[in-house]
Amino acid sequence: MTKELAKALSVPVAELRRACEAFEQPFERSDELPPGASHMGQQRAVDAIRFGIDIDRPGYNVYVLGTQGSHRHGLVNELIAERARAKGAPDDWCYVNNFTDPERPQALSFTAGRGGEFRDDMHALIEDMRLAIPSAFEGDDYRNQLRAIEETTQKELQEQWQSLEEHAASEGIGVLQTSTGYVLAPVEKGKVLGDKEFDRLPEERRKKIQAAIKRLSEELQARIEQMPKLRKQHRERVRALNQEVTAQAVSALISELRQKYEDMPKVTAYLDIAEQNIIENAQDFRRPESTALPFLARDSTESFAQYEVNLVVDNSASDAAPIIYEPNPSHPNVIGKIEHRAEMGALLTDFRMVRSGSLLQANGGYLILDIQRVLTRPFTWESLKQALLAKSARIESPADTYGLVTTTTLKPEPIPLDLKVILIGERWLFYLLNRYDHEFENLFKVAADFENDIERNDETVREYASLVADSARTNDLLPLSHDAMRKVIEQRARRAQDGEKLSLHMRSLDDLLIQSDYWARKRGSELVEPVDIKEAIDQRDRRLDRSRARILDAIRRDILLIDTEGTCVGQVNGLSVIDLGEYRYGHPVRITATTRMGTGELVDIEREVKLGGAIHSKGMLILSAALTSRYSPETPLSLHGSVVFEQSYGGVEGDSASVGELCALISSLSRIPIKQNIAVTGSINQLGRVQVVGGINEKIEGFFDVCSNRGLDGSHGVVIPRDNIKHLMLREDVTDAVRDGRFHVFAATTIDEAVALLTGVPAGERGPDGRFAHGSVNAKVEEQLIRYATLRKRFGKKAESDEQE
Amino acid sequence: MSRSKETLHVFIAVTETSSIPDLWQAALRTAGDSPAEFVALYLHDERWHRAASLPFTREISKTAGTAVDFTLRRAEQLLSDAARQLKNQIDKLASEAERAIAFEVLPESDQVRARGLISAGESVLILPSILHEHPICGEVTGRGVRVLFVECGLAQA
After folding, report:
1. What's the pLDDT at A738?
2. Cross-chain CB nearest to A192 (options B50, B66, B67)
3. Distance between CA atoms of residues A724 and A710, nearest Å
4. Same domain, yes or no, for A461 and A355?
5. Predicted confidence band of residue A408 (pLDDT cuts 50, 70, 90)
6. How confident is the model over A214-218, as a mean pLDDT?
7. Which residues in B lie closer than 8 A to residue A224 (C-beta atoms)?
8. Do residue A337 and residue A433 come from a single domain?
9. Suppose A516 and one of A16, A459, A536, A619 were both cysteines; which one would form an S-S bond, judging by CB atoms 3.0 to 4.6 Å apart?
């Protein structure tokens, strides 16, 4: 490697970590800063949410896309709260008995607060009726009237019977009563005639008696058939009396209520029906008579209970539209449920056991749900969509919805819905739902996409500082010093994986501040200083870096083979990143390549054994194309090459090793060794350009740590894609080492630059004759490929002549 | 049935149509505090048997109005049911009064047995007044048996 090239490709120290400069308007403590906007950098999402909650059209519900911890909930709540206050409290909702079809309880709406009032009024009415109705039935008036009815009926019956008996007697026939009926038999002098006495009668008399018995039997049968009518007549008279007595007792009570709710026609109609029902079922309200089987006796409490009111939505305590966040969006919690009680082995239910879910609790306001939780709770998503499509909440159990139970249950009257549902979730779920759930796009027409980061410039840094100060205030933390604030800004750029951006991941910011506060208080400081920020970061890394430490230990003990000195043909130090969610780290990985004459095959061993992901495989195919187009444009590629990540036993994904893999292949073909003190990362395109990769900081630091453990001698370094420079936010120990010349970071734009840096030999360019410069790496690669092609041709001819012989 | 001179023998003649409680109350009043033996005599008049012996008699159901042949077997069943019901009723009343009572079925045609049951001495025969012409009255008259007629209501159906 020429020194000039190394110098030209070296990344200046200043670009390795974009430090936060002193603020234009300096401050000593963060609590001097003015409050910041809580929705900093999220204007697009804020506008979308405002639009979604303002527009009053069906289907304009909101899906908030963004990563967890990006303050989605907080911001949504804040924006909705503004609007909810302006809307005012929505109606209360009650379920009452449907007297004509008790399986379909009736829904009644009231202005906020009046639902509870109505419930209490009905309860008081029941208490009054409980006393008034039995008392009315125990009064002398009622008893006298009842006795009069009974006497009338008895008299009618006796008259009928007497007339029959008299008629029969006039014809010499007696009417004998048995336990179950009547027998007509001839009588003489008050005594029933037996067969002997009857036979002694003259024939004419016998015939007359038989005819009379036949005729009287028919008459008796006709009268018996009339008996049910008489009994029914009697019951009706008693019933009419009961109704009259009940009506007198309850009408005054109910008319008072009717007057109170006269502005609500549905309620007064219910009261009319309830009154009618009470009057029609007057007997149910009388004190029960004692029975031999008391447990079978009808409970009068139940008779009164059917006039109770089940208040399912109570907005009496609110003056704003409800904002409901349902942390556990199970089907019953969201849609509602119908409870049952066990009674003598049977499960019973009625309108009083209908329970509303958060959908109804949020009616007239806003319901916030985590979509991932909704989708992982059985039946919730389908029922939620159905409710939104139907614009009404129908409370039923999933078992009923899907016809899984055959017992009768309730079907409460659906309650009209007028609410906004705000789903909060990850982006991938939004895209999946959009793609595969056709109802989704009709129901959630507003997407509020949260940014992951924000542009880093003087203005945003200033605003961000205010945001940090707010967070410290909100969390009741110590204020930050001016320098600590600069460190926080730098850490936020590091978190964004970009020196030119600041992360908007608010949870990690809160965590950093809380932990820094902890270390500052531990020091006894009243101010968070840079040392506390550093301690918080270091301690967090230390808590999470067990697997990283094990890898470094394995490298130190030569279990995981990584050379950091000398050279080797066909072997290069690549760089890999392990992502553990909140913690990522990098480490070097040995990539080796072998080549021989073949038929143009490049074998990616990772892919062959199915350890390579799709992107890794794509990278290998691009690499193969780059190799062919570069060195073998006019001759068949007569190469068999294989590439592998040595000692890698897990999956390999991404194309960030493709530059390293190509360098290893080039080294193997050219037989020019690669320096082991330099690691390389970058993806390559078909034209040989080196492209950006992710996790660049962790990758550099991973190799730095290995080299640093073994002792930095000034020869160690890393080759990265030039386009990745803007993403650099390296640790300060790395930048210090670079500043001191103990470590190097090179930025390459092309594969040739990477090859020259790794081999120390110029890569070589094609001259006017179309050939690479003699002695260059590329010339040697091309020569080797031509040699393979010639050999292959020779072998081909030999095989042909062998066949002919 | 053991008898002693000191014991009063109270015979209560009952029919299906007479009010048992009225008769029983009369019997208790008659016995007072003195030791007494109670015997219920179910007097049945055999009218069902006579009616059943005729080939054309029918029993017409109270509830449905349907008619079926009225047979001797049915008459026997009615008699047996009536006897059981009366016995249950009078046993219950006696039990409430903490008294013991025997129960005998006495057909109209079996007056000889009546004579055997109702002996002379300290005996009282209590009957519903409606039975003042019943043959049993003739059987006991002149034998030192006190006969007491009771104005009682009709049996509750």
Report:
1. 96
2. B50
3. 27
4. no
5. low
6. 89
7. 60-65
8. yes
9. A536
Any idea which residue has 């204020």 for tokens?
Answer: A479
Which of A489, A513, A544 is the C-terminal boundary of a domain? A544
- Find the range with the poorest average confidence among A400-414, A506-520, A543-557: A400-414
Domain that holds residue A774: 559-790
Residues A415 and A512 in one domain: no
Residues A579, A696 within the same domain: yes
Q: Which of B54, B58, B62 is nearest residue A224 as measured by Cβ atoms?
A: B62
Residue to test with chain A: of B17, B18, B46, B54, most A Cβ within 10 A: B54
Q: Helix, strand, or coil here: A599? A: coil
Interface subset of A 133-192, CB within 8 angstroms of B: 174, 176, 178-186, 191-192
Chain B residues close to A217, C-beta within 8 Å? 58, 60, 67
Q: How far is B35 from chain A (nearest CA, A)?
A: 36
Q: Are residues A456 and A431 part of one domain?
A: no
The reply to whether A423 and A381 lie within a common domain is yes
**CA neighbours closer than 13 Å in the CB half-sphere of residue A267:** 25
Give me the CATH topology for the region B8-150.
Rossmann fold (3.40.50)
What is the share, in percent, of chain A residues with pLDDT greater than 70? 96
pLDDT tier at A768, thresholds 50, 70, 90: confident
| Number of Cβ atoms within 10 Å of the Cβ of A500 | 14
Q: How far is A227 from chain B (nearest CA, A)?
A: 8
Q: Is residue A394 part of a domain?
A: yes
Q: Which of A30, A109, A648, A656 does the annotation list as catalytic?
A: A656
> CB count, 10 Å around CB of A705?
22
Percent of chain A with pLDDT over 90: 55
Answer yes or no: do A179 and B51 touch at CB < 8 A. Answer: no
Q: Compute chain B's Rg from CA coordinates.
A: 17
Mind listing the pLDDT tens digit for each residue in A537-554?
999 999 998 999 999 999
Q: Which residue of B has its CA nearest to A183?
A: B59
Indicate which CATH number applies to the domain containing A520.
Answer: 1.10.8.60
Q: Identify whether A699 is a catalytic site residue.
A: yes
> Are B30 and B148 spatial neighbours (Cβ–Cβ below 8 Å)?
yes
Query: Could you give the CA distance from residue A691 to residue A723 in angstroms, rounded to a whole number?
Result: 7
Q: Are residues A36 and A46 in the same domain?
A: no
Chain B residues in contact with chain A using a Cβ-Cβ cutoff of 8 Å: 45, 47-51, 53-67, 70, 78, 81-82
This model of the complex carries an ipTM of 0.76
**Residue A535: other Cβ atoms inside 10 A:** 18
**Yes or no, beta carbons of B60 and A225 under 8 Å apart:** no
Of the candidates B51, B65, B81, which has its C-beta nearest A183's C-beta? B51
CB pair distance less than 8 Å for B54 and A185: yes
Q: Both tokens of residue A702?
A: 């991973």
Question: Best of B16, B17, B58 to disrupt the A interface by mutation (most A CBs within 10 Å)?
Answer: B58
Nearest to residue A374, comparing CAs of A334, A426, A408? A334
The verdict on residue A272 lying in a domain is no
Question: Closest Cα partner for A662 from A748, A561, A587, A559?
Answer: A748
Cβ–Cβ below 8 Å for B60 and A217: yes
Task: Judge if A577 and A722 occupy the same domain.
Answer: yes
Percent helix, strand, coil in chain B, to 5, is 40, 25, 35
Q: Which of A519, A544, A569 is the last residue of a domain?
A: A544
